[in-house]
Amino acid sequence: MNGRYEGCGKEERAVYGEYEQAWLGYRRIEDGALRVKYAAVCGRLIVVGAGTELESARLELRSAIAGLLGSEPEEVSDAESADVGGVPGGPAIIVGLADTVRESRYAPASAAADLPDADALGSEGYAIRSGTNGSVYLLGGGAKGALYAAFGFIRMLQTGGDIGGLRILERPAYPLRMIDHWDNADGTVERGYAGGSLFFDGGRIGERMGRIRDYARLQASIGINAVAINNVNVHAEETRLLAQDRLDDVARVADVLRAYGIALYLSVNFAAPIELGGLGTADPLDPAVAAWWRETTAEVYRRIPGFGGYVVKADSEHRPGPFTYGRNHADGANMLADALATHGGTVIWRCFVYDCRQDWRDRRTDRARAAYDHFMPLDGAFRDNVVLQIKHGPMDFQVREPVSPLLLGLRRTRIALELQITQEYTGQQRHLCYLLPMWKEVLDFDAAGDDRKVADVAGGFAAVSNIGTDANWTGHLLAQANWYGYGRLAWDPSLPAEAIGREWIRMALGPDAAVEETVIRMLMDSHAIYESYTAPLGVGWMVQPNHHYGPSVDGYEYSPWGTYHYADRDGIGVDRTVATGTGYAGQYPAAAASAYESPQTCPDELLLFFHHVPYDTRLKSGKTVIQHIYDTRFEGADRAAGLLAAWDSIADSLPSRTYVEVRTRLAHQAEHAREWRDQLNTYFYRKSGIPDALGRTIY
Ligand code: GCU
Question: Which of 515, 497, 475, 525 lies closest to 642 in space, CA to CA?
Fold first, then answer.
């Protein structure tokens, strides 16, 4: 019972080194006075009750207190202790389920510390309360809540918080707070920029259990409660994850995640009844197909208690789906939902459905319209345990897109917002791009002007992981802030991007004020900087095909993927108006639809997403489109160089390896931003023939 949390085994530690714990590094607090203050509360630890999540909370509190304060708390067992509210022996940290603690001898005598009950907290919520004698109560509505309370308290210690007079009550905004891995069975990660897969390695599963446990701790510390371990593109090997001989391996991973309150999901192949089950069809309305899924699912639950459910990418980018059988997506999703329902499982059905074999000559088909066109007619047709997962924009995780109208349109269907933490189109973790400012804009978007923001209508969050086997987890050390920040926002979307960034800096990089001020500015500016040297004014892409890294203005212009900018000698942009274009603007509620319909009222940053305009069109900023392109590309490249200079300015305050690793990436970014600047400026100068008003060098 008294074992310390050990995390990685010795060999793994040697591989991963000093950054292995990300924001849970628990380095000793340097401020002696603060340490003494915290130690006065943290000297004793009492766990009331038992269970796996509580055990995880106990281990974490021990390890955090030992690391941060220099000595382990004394663990007081039920038998030895008297009422700590009164207290022989001094204050303690008391952790447990709210209702158990309220009825235990540890409930404080005084009503001053009145403790909330489980109903007030909900199953995942928690309270942190100061007791009468300086004790602190960490109370969960359910077991997960107690674990989150422990992490919430640890975060306070790590960020130098005041732990006197605490009356904190937290409830997550959404029941689903999910991370999707695009990990393949062979150990590669689709759109992964941080090494290989944590879960898979050359066909084997769960070989890195110590690291997976650390991963689970990090996820729980930010409130993540669902993880899909394999890629939405389910190939032959991953289809077999549902097979008898693979399920036990999946179950071992699920056991570790479950101890941290995380349900494991699998991405499944819609054609699995054929490929794995040997049936002649995967038609969702065929009784044999439904029976196959029922039996397979029952077996999954026999092996994996608390299994979350299935993630499905169907009829999308060559994946099989119900369209093959003349069925719609409700038919497909509901059949799987029925198989899962008796076990309490959920189908996460993705809405990323569009024609990826478009003819570039065809200007009427508009990929942006696709999700809304496919799914709006099905609103209300899905079972209660189906969640439609909708990308935040109508296209595909570009640095600038309008908010998906489908998110705002569906009223009778459970939905989850899908974000991409991995930086596929935002610099692939070689460029710094803190994504929270962009995500906040999405969450705050109020299309109808009726205070129904995206944050209010989303029933959950899912995001594509940026995590891999790299020592620092995310390739670019500062990209950890996107992972951390995603979890914090999924818990509470009202938290400011800057406050979250500061938390991460203090926890991961330490308490140095100069470091914090410098890094927070770098983070907060980085998305705008990235946008200003890449594709302009919302038009998107301009990247090299396939891997999507680096500039290639026409890389996708004559491709079948539906991602065009239509630049010619006179102008650029996509006409998505109702009046003369694809009609996409009409998918929004009236207020947004009319704002987007006219170039006069369309926000500058989305002008080329909605309109095809001449290069001399004047923006609201007063600049012409072409001069805006030149100016922002020059500024963007300069500001990218500024990120490197900022980092250099704190070199002496950083561990040398941290400094050098990040510097290498920032130096590459500065150089690569110049490449973006010059390729885009040159392209548009040659197309338009219009010179830069400031006469700067364009090639
Ligand atoms: C993007 C990405 C693919 C991914 C797809 C998806 O298109 O490039 O790698 O499979 O999104 O979200 O399914």
Answer: 525
Beta-strand (E) ranges in 14-104? 44-48, 74-75, 93-97
Q: Which of 180, 366, 424, 597 is catalytic?
A: 424
Measured distance CA(418)–CA(160) in Å, rounded: 33
pLDDT tens digits for range 531-568: 999 999 999 999 999 999 999 999 999 999 999 999 99
Q: Is 317 designated active site? A: yes
Strand partners, 420: 464
Tell me which of 6, 114, 317, 384 is the catalytic residue. 317
Q: With left for phi above 0 and alpha for psi between -120 and 50, is residue 203 left, alpha or beta?
A: left
Question: 15-170: which CATH number, 3.40.50.300, 3.30.379.10, 3.40.1400.10, 3.40.50.720?
Answer: 3.30.379.10
**Domain definitions of the chain by residue range:** 15-170, 176-507, 509-574+612-699
3.30.390.10, 3.90.1330.10, 3.40.50.170, 3.90.1150.10: which CATH number matches 509-574+612-699? Answer: 3.90.1330.10
Supply the CATH classification number for the domain 176-507: 3.20.20.80
Which tens digits make up the pLDDT trace of 112-124?
Answer: 568 999 999 999 9
CB neighbourhood size of 168 (10 A): 14
Which atom, in ligand 1's list, is nearest to the CA of 313? Answer: 13
pTM over 0.85: yes
Ligand 1 atom closest to the CA of 191, numbered from 1: 9
Structure tokens at 588: 């929004």
Convert 144-163 into a string of H (helix), E (strand) and C (coil). HHHHHHHHHHHHHHHCCCCC
